[in-house]
């Protein structure tokens, strides 16, 4: 049996971004002893990189805003595939979560009359994003961390130990969620990145808050940690993933120089007046307003420009269409030969605002372009193009409790959870999602843990054989050439040399970018699945040299399992959905099909024991099934005009 240190907590939160920290605060406030584990340094998560703001219908800048309008915008943005109950809770609770942040010390930008300022963003009818310049995520994380410190100070007073009831384990990676003999969550298996030491945290509740999957694609705004770990951990624990075909390609990433390709150019640039032009100088977005949005967007440049000054009497410019529409339009312009010198299009604020306003409202963008591309955005346009940014698909959860389906004790919140954003997320709706559902996940995880203690079955117990299997799996890359890799299903690999994890990662990223990227075709996705099968077999021989002390090659070898699982889910679901909707565009099925609105695609691990060895490399590891979506509650449907619903709902839904 592997000698592995064990600790006991009530709730383990995996991830210290906005969702994880908000969940941890709630769980601790409910009285649960709470451990937070994060792969990188505490405070370094995607949330910190969020620029534009938090969407919440506080109505500070336009009193017409309210939760119903926010709900409508979110459903429209997601093309009605959203789990409507999540969209409802999100729209209703987001303002309270922003106020709460302020009471915990967040310093938002203000309106002239001293209220929290709110800015325009794509797909939002009113100015709705509470923000701190273009560094909102930083303030959000700083505030949540400060709240945790204050809770730890309370604990010190009471127990003489800062970490009595909330403790952060930073630079630790979770590789498995553990379960007891009844199939209930019993804890997590992790390794410390610096020392390579293994340890187990025993707990009845585990909250996954691990963020996104972007590192499976070559061009991405995501940083190194986003390898779909939580998605894979859920699958391996037996929970299904929902609608994984929906991946958001943000329209504006940097395209030059190559070393920074994919880094995000915030949507605030367009929200604050930035316009998109092609190489002919044409403001091309007016040619790309789809029928479903025709009534809500300006048809002329003059009307679009007037909207910035008088939004009540003009319609918004099409640069502020939802992200999927803008990304596809840019892609089409570049393909038609009207792109910028480095394969993007031009985004210009320099002709729209005085230099000092650009520097004040978009300080990070100003520095980002000056330092990384030697471009002064107050005087010249930026070059931008689509970049893989966000995954709408994720762990299938209960809308109210954030409980993962089918695995008692497992919860998921934030980007790792599916459903809230349907087929396409509106900008700003992630930060609010993290706060709303992070809180709910923490609350219900704490309740579940308390219930486990008082139940007849008692607290779940970690099974030794699971710990041994997790340790063996984690050590495997050190013996890629050894006998362990040549037994059982790996016998065919005998005699083959180990594979370099970096090469495998590059091939995976290229495959996903080229064959399952922004525009998808049947033949290409079939090729992608074949290639993923080949990579999966080779990844079992991913080998590293050296030891367990800070060994990035080893870490990547372990992350490959997750990226391959998630990529297969994306490719299989994208092949199955024969329509174009939100973040899923098929060249061979170019329109949205109302019949598909009733369909959720569910991915499960084919081998329910969670072992990966037994799976057939040709067949893949994922089973895909269709599931009917739950009908939208009538009072929520009544918030829309009938003429609008006709564009989205299937015939039978309309007649019902
Ligand atoms: P994250 O903040 O991504 O945190 C994930 C955490 O999980 C990290 O702590 C990570 O270390 C940890 N983790 C991952 N795997 C493991 C593992 N195996 N073991 C242990 N820990 C693990 N959204 C908006 O609403 N508004 C914006 O303005 C905005 N701007 C953005 C700008 C950029 C550049 C990017 C990349 C995203 C932006 N988004 C924005 C999206 C938003 O920031 C993310 O969707 C959101 O922050 C995700 O939060 P999260 O809490 O789910 O996860």
UniProtKB/TrEMBL annotation:
Keywords: FAD, Flavoprotein, Oxidoreductase. Residues 10-431 form the FAD-dependent oxidoreductase 2 FAD-binding domain. The keyword Flavoprotein applies. InterPro entries: FAD-dep_OxRdtase_2_FAD-bd, FAD/NAD-bd_sf, Fum_R/Succ_DH_flav-like_C_sf, Fum_Rdtase/Succ_DH_flav-like_C, SdhA/FrdA/AprA, Succ_DH/fumarate_Rdtase_cat_sf. The active site is at 323 (proton acceptor). SUPFAM superfamilies: FAD/NAD(P)-binding domain (SSF51905), Succinate dehydrogenase/fumarate reductase flavoprotein C-terminal domain (SSF46977), Succinate dehydrogenase/fumarate reductase flavoprotein, catalytic domain (SSF56425). GO terms for molecular function: steroid dehydrogenase activity, acting on the CH-CH group of donors. It comes from the Bacteria. The keyword Oxidoreductase applies. Its cofactor is FAD. It holds the Pfam family FAD_binding_2. Residues 300-320 are annotated as: Disordered. Residues 505-603 form the Fumarate reductase/succinate dehydrogenase flavoprotein-like C-terminal domain. Residues 305-320 have a biased composition (Basic and acidic residues). Gene3D superfamilies: FAD/NAD(P)-binding domain, Fumarate reductase/succinate dehydrogenase flavoprotein-like, C-terminal domain, Succinate dehydrogenase/fumarate reductase flavoprotein, catalytic domain. NCBIfam families: PRK07803.1 (NF005866). This is Succinate dehydrogenase flavoprotein subunit. The gene is sdhA.
